UniProtKB/TrEMBL annotation, chain A:
PROSITE patterns: DNAJ_2 (PS50076). It comes from the Bacteria. It comes from Thiocapsa marina 5811. This is Heat shock protein DnaJ domain protein. Keywords: Chaperone, Stress response. Residues 3-62 form the J domain.
TrEMBL record, chain B:
This is Tetratricopeptide repeat protein. Residues 862-873 have a biased composition (Basic residues). The lineage of its organism: Bacteria, Pseudomonadati, Pseudomonadota, Gammaproteobacteria, Chromatiales. It comes from Thiocapsa marina 5811. Residues 845-873 are annotated as: Disordered. It comes from the Bacteria.
Length: 97, 873
């Protein structure tokens, strides 16, 4: 995923406070010690859109094309994990793939 | 109708003839089961009864089993069963658990039950347990007939209820019931693998995910450990494999998911929280392949613009048109986009310009974009508004990318690259007056070189109005005061900064510098008494060894000037501490120069006139000091260079490694010590013959300030050979540098007839056509590759307009190309050009003016802007 708004999970019109809150919330899940790569991604995204100037600069100058992951995240972001249906488990136990 | 008997092919017959027990065994060992089967069958046909036949039958049984497993792994259970049955038909072989598993997969429970009584399976607890595990999994999967076929007290029947409860509890998210049910399943139960899987899956809850939707390392590793306890041939292996897939990160998952079946995907989508729409879109994305074409990705984005958002699709979609927006714009509408707006076209052009290393292009295209924004707002833009901020950012773009002002000094030409970028930055402050960094950058730029102090003060004043107590602005104020010689004011400002930020070593250093500069100024004015006072102030703030050393030096010089005998002793001590070699002489000379004291006289007074013995350690220390001096932005004073030139040349013969020699040549490139650089480059070439980097240094040093047409052809050819070697070595940076020299500030009129400048291998973007009618265009129309007006101007200055015109009568390539030019643009235009250049000459544009300087390229003439605009759609 390359879009910092999607990485932080904030809308395109998010303000400084919303972005900082999303960053801090993300830090709880991706601390530099436990998840260095996750932290880097989070930090990079935050720095790209931290301030109003940053966000405008990102809109004006960033040339990164969207990826399939960006499209997926934008169209249908991940929700909380769900327990699978019993029928799914039954099919797998039956040997289906 | 009777089926026609298929005749064995000639190839098969040949193979049958050539097969041996060893080759069949080798096929079996290598997993080539089809070949092994054919081989063993052929051998069995011709083998006599006996021990050999037993061994061949055993091999065939293994080959059937191997092939059956291969087919089973592909989900081809019916085909696998044929193999198992072939194996069983060989007779007198123990039942294989996988045969039973295969039957179970096909729901043929009745055929499995007798196998449970097979003596060999009963004798092997591992195989028996494996088969029971498969029966248990099939029992949970609802395969009919298992319960009925088993005795009532069989663990598979008895524990099925609690295993069902565990599955149900997990699926509805009742973790308490799940825990109870799992506890009720005994350790040696045929359902034990299910216990591990459900335990692993229950670790994957929302709290175990990071911001990307991936599992935390802790959750992932715990779950993976539990899943690793399940064997590959377990009846629960399919469920385990699906669970393992769900543990992968989103990036790892994508390619694996493509190979997974619907049941596995369902499990993964649920566990990872994929909404149904995401799964549908993912399927659609898969049809575009591993690396979707931008056009197809854009088509998909437009198709889903409602869920993706119109703005997002438009903004991100524009990025898919790069790197060739003109081509991309053609299919934008074809794939479902609305017509691009004018502003989109300008933005795409500006992005495209950034792929070019030419700063002028970037400046020009972003200027156009800013102009369009301004025009769209009818020139009424409120500072700080979104449009204003956009304009400000765009005006700062070239500097952000190229940091021109961080490297160059201001000059008097407002049309120069730094002049233009500085004007852009100043303009940006009209729209975004709150960007402190821009003020500070401009102040630092205007202070560099000391020629634009007024501009620095002007910007500083505006910054101080906004941030009167800001440390960075105060520091800029101190630097401005120092640059203006207002040392007392600088000291006051520094004290203010240190009062609130006592550990600010940068300011402390600058303050010491300010006092030192003051002391030097006093010494220049022959006022050692005042210098001593400034030094006393500096001493109060001095903390580092390096500043103490310099204070000692200046103090020594002040004492010398005041006829204090302590001075000579102090300076002797400093020289002694520095080893009395070249490094010591450099430090003394630099300081003497800064204080207006003749360096040669000082060295004489200290008995240091005799050249020191060349020494590697001293030489390294010397160049370290030179680099430190040059890094401050100062130049090496000519007197210092002149005094040290001779002893330095002698040190060129010292045995240093190649890297050090290269580093020395690079340092000398930043000075005017061309003879010394040449001596080092030549010494290096003696040891590393033909080494391109030293060829380049030798060339530049040898021909510094020499107009290109006076450089012998053999020298040019030698450099071209170095270029080829650098290319062979893959040293792209060096290749670029040599090309710059060969093509760069350029010869007028196309240069010599062959090799050297204008050599066919150097492409020149200036070589294209142009329709402008200004003077500059006369050059373009003449097809003059990579030429510089300044160089032409230099010829005119050297020869005078009439002498220049008389060159046109000269035989040879230069005269010929000038005549060609006259033919093309006409005598009148050429006269206008010559007179214009004769009236406005600038020595800075000489070739090799200062190799250390950034080369800003040609100026943004109307021609270039017009050309840029013509390119626009």
């Amino acid at each position: 995923m390359t879009d910092p708004f999607l990485i932080l999970g904030v809308p395109l019109d998010a303000d400084d406070a919303a972005i900082e809150a999303a960053y801090l919330a993300g830090l709880r899940r991706a601390s530099p010690e436990r998840d260095p790569a996750g932290f880097e991604a989070l930090r990079g995204a935050y720095e790209k859109i931290r301030t109003r100037r940053d966000r405008l600069a990102y809109a004006l100058f960033d040339q990164t094309p969207p990826t399939a992951a960006d499209i997926l995240a934008k169209a249908a972001p991940l929700s909380d994990p769900r327990r699978p249906k019993r029928a799914t488990l039954t099919a797998l136990l039956r040997g289906e793939v | 109708m009777a089926k026609k008997q298929k005749r064995p092919s000639v190839k098969a017959l040949q193979q049958a003839c050539s097969v041996t027990p060893e080759s069949a065994r080798a096929d079996l060992d290598a997993g080539r089961f089809r070949e092994a089967t054919a081989g063993f069958k052929a051998l069995l046909k011709s083998a006599p009864a006996g021990e050999d036949r037993e061994s061949l039958r055993d091999g065939l049984a293994h080959a059937y089993a191997g092939r059956a497993r291969q087919l089973g792994a592909k989900g081809m259970h019916k085909e696998a069963l044929v193999m198992w049955e072939n194996r069983a038909a060989l007779g007198a072989l123990p039942a294989h658990p996988d045969h039973a598993v295969c039957l179970l997969r096909l729901g043929r429970v009745a055929q499995v039950m007798p196998m449970l009584e097979d003596r060999s399976l009963k004798a092997d607890p591992g195989s028996g347990a494996l088969l029971l595990g498969h029966l248990a999994a099939q029992m949970l999967a609802g395969t009919a007939g298992i319960a009925e076929a088993l005795p009532a007290e069989d663990p598979i029947r008895v524990q099925a209820t609690v295993a069902e409860e565990a599955l149900d509890a997990y699926c509805v998210g009742n973790d308490q019931a799940l825990a109870q049910a799992l506890k009720a399943i005994p350790f040696r139960s045929p359902y034990r693998d299910l216990v591990q899987i459900l335990k692993a899956l229950s670790r994957l809850d929302p709290a175990a995910r990071d911001h990307r939707g991936d599992w935390t390392e802790e959750a992932r590793s715990e779950a993976a450990k539990l899943l690793d306890r399940i064997d590959d041939d377990s009846g629960f292996a399919r469920l385990r494999d699906a669970a393992r897939l769900a543990l992968l990160s989103e990036i790892e998952l994508a390619p694996k998911l493509r190979e997974a079946g619907p049941a596995t995907r369902d499990l993964v989508f649920s566990l990872r929280g994929w909404p149904a729409e995401r799964a549908v879109l993912w399927n659609e994305l898969q049809t575009l392949g591993d690396s979707p074409q931008p056009k197809e990705l854009l088509r998909l984005m437009f198709r889903h613009r409602r869920v993706l958002g119109e703005t997002w699709v438009h903004e991100r979609g524009l990025r898919l048109l790069l790197p060739k927006p003109q081509t991309g714009a053609k299919w934008w509408i074809e794939v479902g986009g609305k017509p691009l707006r004018k502003i989109d076209g300008y933005l795409l052009d500006a992005w495209e310009s950034e792929a070019d290393p030419d700063p002028w292009k970037v400046v020009t295209y972003w200027q156009d974009y800013a102009d369009l924004l301004l025009a769209a707002a009818e020139h009424r833009v409120e500072p700080g508004s979104e449009t204003a901020l956009r304009i400000a950012l765009v005006r700062r773009r070239a500097e952000t990318l190229f940091q021109v002002l961080q490297r160059m000094e201001p000059d008097s030409d407002p049309e120069s690259l730094p002049g233009t970028i500085a004007a852009e930055l100043e303009s940006s402050l009209e729209y975004d007056p709150d960007d402190r960094a821009t003020y500070l950058g401009l102040i630092a730029y205007y202070l560099r070189g000391g020629k634009a102090l007024k501009d620095a003060r002007r910007i500083l004043k505006r910054a101080q109005e906004r941030w009167p107590t800001d440390k960075a602005v105060l520091t800029a104020a101190m630097d401005t005061a120092i640059a203006g010689g207002a040392f007392k004011k600088a000291a006051t400002i520094a004290a203010d900064i240190l009062a609130v930020d006592p550990i600010n070593s940068g300011v402390r250093e600058r303050l010491v510098e300010a006092h030192l500069a003051h002391a030097r100024k006093n010494l220049k004015d022959q006022r050692p008494d005042l210098a001593m006072r400034a030094l006393a102030l500096a001493e109060d703030w001095s903390r580092t060894e390096r500043t103490r050393e310099r204070l000692d030096l200046v103090r020594g010089l002040a004492e010398l000037l005041a006829f204090d005998p302590q001075g000579e002793a102090r300076l002797q001590a400093v020289a002694e501490s520095l080893g009395k070699g070249l490094a010591a002489r450099l430090i003394l000379l630099l300081e003497a120069d800064a204080c207006g004291i003749p360096g040669a006289r000082l060295l004489k007074q200290l008995g240091l006139t005799k050249a020191p013995t060349p020494d590697v350690v001293d030489l390294r220390a010397f160049f370290s000091r030179v680099r430190a001096h040059l890094d401050t932005g100062a130049k090496l004073p000519s007197e210092v260079g002149g005094t040290l030139k001779a002893p330095l040349k002698q040190t060129a013969r010292l045995k240093l490694d190649q890297g050090e020699m290269e580093s020395i040549c690079e340092t000398l490139r930043r000075t005017d010590l061309h003879d010394v650089r040449l001596a080092f480059a030549e010494a290096a070439l003696k040891r590393w013959r033909g080494e391109p980097v030293f060829e380049l240094h030798a060339f530049e040093a040898r021909h510094h300030g020499v107009v290109p047409w006076n450089i012998p052809m053999r020298e040019m050819l030698r450099l071209e050979q170095a270029l080829e070697r650098a290319r062979d070595n893959g040293d792209s940076r060096l290749v670029h540098r040599i090309i710059e020299i060969l093509s760069g500030p350029s010869l007028p009129f196309g240069g010599p007839p062959r090799g050297g400048f204008g050599g066919g291998f150097i492409e020149d973007e200036w070589d294209d056509e142009d329709e402008d009618e200004d003077i500059d265009d006369a050059f373009d129309d003449g097809g003059m590759a990579g030429r510089s007006i300044a160089l032409l101007a230099d010829m005119i200055r050297t020869l005078g307009p009439s002498g220049f015109r008389s060159m046109m009568q000269m035989p040879g390539p230069i005269g010929e190309s000038m005549r060609a030019m006259e033919r093309e643009i006409g005598k009148e235009a050429l006269d206008v050009l010559i007179n214009a250049l004769a009236a406005d000459l600038d020595a800075r544009d000489l070739p090799f003016a200062d190799p250390g300087d950034f080369n800003p390229g040609p100026s943004p003439s109307t021609r270039k802007r017009a050309r840029a605009k013509r390119k626009r759609r």
